[in-house]
TrEMBL record:
PANTHER family: TRANSPOSASE, TRANSPOSASE INSI FOR INSERTION SEQUENCE ELEMENT IS30A-RELATED
One of the GO BP terms on file: transposition
All copies of domain Transposase IS30-like HTH, residue ranges: 5-47
A cellular-component GO term for this protein: cytosol
Organism annotation: Brucella intermedia
Residues passing through the membrane, by range: none
GO MF annotations, alphabetized: transposase activity
Record lineage: Bacteria, Pseudomonadati, Pseudomonadota, Alphaproteobacteria, Hyphomicrobiales
Protein name as catalogued: IS30 family transposase
UniProt xrefs under InterPro entries: IS30-like_HTH (IPR025246), Transposase-Integrase (IPR051917)
């Protein structure tokens, strides 16, 4: 396993799905895929399909997981969506405020 992180690919997600279907322990899956155990756990937790109306389909599905991951990456972050918020944060960082101080101020203002 390398120290350099790379996103999990659709091919890796398909392999993860296959191994999970075969009931291979997640630690062994991580070793076989050359990923850290926590990466595999996190992948399954964050990108599993959940629906209260169709519970039979709940679980980890490679293509669905890939779509969820891509959607999350393309979603605009708060500082991109709110230019005035971005301006405030940059000004405070330039004034040597810590991220914690900026966060505390924004919370007290009930900012987005």
């Amino acid at each position: 396993m390398s120290n350099c992180y790379s996103q999990i690919t659709l091919r890796e997600r398909r392999r993860l799905f296959e191994l999970k279907q075969l009931k291979v322990p997640l630690g062994d899956i991580a070793r076989l895929m050359g990923r850290h155990r926590s990466t595999i756990y996190r992948e399954i937790k964050r990108n599993s399909f959940r629906d209260t109306e169709i519970p039979d389909y709940n679980g980890y599905h490679s293509v669905v997981a890939d779509n969820i991951s891509k959607e999350r990456r393309t979603r605009l972050r708060k500082l991109r969506r709110y230019p005035e918020l971005r301006k405030f944060v940059i000004e405070q960082l330039e004034a040597h405020w810590s991220p914690e101080q900026i966060c505390g101020r924004l919370i007290s203002w009930s900012a987005p």
